[in-house]
């Protein structure tokens, strides 16, 4: 019964053969003591593997994991709030500057000059903006913005560092 | 709550009930731990990597599209993370040929007469714990998790035929040992 190889025997065990092949292996096992012993040893190996004991994690595993998830979620929320507050602050600064510029322009336009209003407004806007973006003002704006960016970058970096520390990486 | 299906739990977690994730953790932690312990041959590393795997799964749960079972998806994370850990530790990642060599090594290491008086279940456990990572992963998923060869193929990203080859080789290793043991018993 040498034609029944290990692969066929394994497939027979797993019920992974056609019905004819199953019948062939079954009768071969019944007719050969040697093959029967081989099959019984394989069956034994299969049962022993099925009965292999499971390993258990430490008792606190789930608790520790859920704690990590909770901490991570709250840190992510903090980061989100920080970014949001930074964007709000930045928006407020831009809004204030724009508001101030418009306020100055409106004040400079006379109320009785309604016909010349549009011309005056556009003239004043262009004058104001050319003044606003003059060399000196531009460098002041640039410096203020860079300062804000550096400060924000620092805080973001600190948040990242704290997060990494909390997760032990 | 414990009777919820994996899909129901994931949907609940996706809705923001993070606490429900603990049910999934309790459901899979021991079997996944067994697989990692057998692959990494180290309890401490296994638990640490398992923690990472559950965190990875949680962080990516929104991308889980229910196209496969959660178990298949999760075990893929576990298997790949274990391989990365082995690779980072500059340990050898066994190729198919290496696995055969390692099985030969186990064959020569465990002689039938060495464990004649030892409980066979203990010997099997010892051998299973020394199997190469890929073989250990296949054996654990097939016997402990009762996954099909198709599902195991999905996890390991290999063909069903290859899964069967790995499974049969590991099983044959034990069969040969049992056969020799039985023969020795008959002689004695």
Radius of gyration of chain A: 40 Å
Extended strand count of chain B: 0
Helix content of chain B: over 70%
| Coarse shape of chain A | rod-shaped
CATH class of the largest domain in chain B: Mainly Alpha
Low-confidence stretches of chain B: 93-97
Low-confidence stretches of chain A: none
Which structural class is indicated by helix and strand composition of chain A? mainly alpha
Strand content of chain A: under 5%
What's the helix count of chain B? Answer: 9
Distance from first to last alpha carbon of chain A: 59 Å
Q: What are the main properties of this structure?
A:
heterodimer, A: 169 residues, mainly alpha, B: 188 residues, Arc Repressor Mutant, subunit A, 2 domains, 9 helices, 0% strand
Structure description:
The complex is a heterodimer of chains A (169) and B (188). Chain A is built from 6 helices and no strands. With 169 residues, chain A is mainly α. Chain A folds into 2 domains: 6-50, no CATH class; 64-166, no CATH class. The model of chain A has no long low-confidence stretch (mean pLDDT 82). The interface between A and B is large, with 33 and 38 residues.
């Amino acid at each position: 019964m040498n034609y029944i190889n290990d692969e066929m025997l394994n497939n027979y065990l797993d019920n992974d053969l056609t019905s004819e092949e199953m019948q062939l292996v079954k009768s071969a096992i019944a007719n050969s003591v040697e093959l029967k012993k081989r099959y019984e040893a394989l069956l034994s190996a299969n049962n022993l593997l099925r009965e292999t004991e499971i390993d258990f994690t430490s008792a606190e595993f789930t608790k520790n994991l859920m704690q990590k998830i909770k901490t991570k979620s709250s840190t992510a929320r903090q980061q989100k709030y920080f970014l949001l507050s930074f964007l709000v602050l930045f928006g407020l600064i831009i809004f204030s500057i724009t508001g101030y510029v418009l306020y100055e322009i409106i004040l400079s336009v006379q109320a009785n000059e309604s016909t010349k209003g549009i011309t005056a407004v556009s003239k004043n806007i262009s004058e104001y903006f050319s003044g606003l973006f003059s060399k000196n003002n531009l460098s002041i704006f640039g410096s203020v913005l860079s300062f804000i960016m550096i400060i924000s970058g620092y805080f973001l970096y600190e948040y990242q560092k704290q997060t990494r520390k909390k997760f032990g990486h | 709550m414990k009777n919820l299906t994996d899909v129901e739990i994931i949907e609940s977690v996706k809705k923001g009930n993070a606490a429900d994730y603990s049910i999934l953790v309790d459901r899979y932690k021991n079997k996944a731990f067994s697989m990692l312990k057998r692959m990494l041959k180290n309890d401490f590393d296994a638990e640490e990597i398992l923690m990472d795997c559950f965190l990875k799964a949680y962080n990516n749960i929104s991308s889980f599209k229910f196209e496969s079972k959660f178990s298949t998806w999760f075990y893929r994370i576990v298997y790949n993370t274990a391989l990365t850990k082995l690779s980072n530790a500059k340990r050898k990642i066994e190729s198919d040929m290496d696995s055969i060599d390692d099985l030969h090594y186990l064959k020569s290491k465990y002689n039938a007469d060495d464990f004649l008086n030892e409980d066979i279940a203990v010997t099997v456990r010892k051998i299973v714990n020394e199997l190469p990572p890929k073989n250990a992963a296949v054996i654990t998923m097939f016997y402990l998790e009762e996954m099909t060869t198709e599902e195991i193929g999905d996890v390991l990203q290999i063909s069903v035929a290859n899964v069967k080859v790995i499974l049969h080789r590991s099983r044959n290793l034990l069969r040969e040992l049992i056969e020799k043991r039985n023969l020795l018993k008959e002689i004695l």
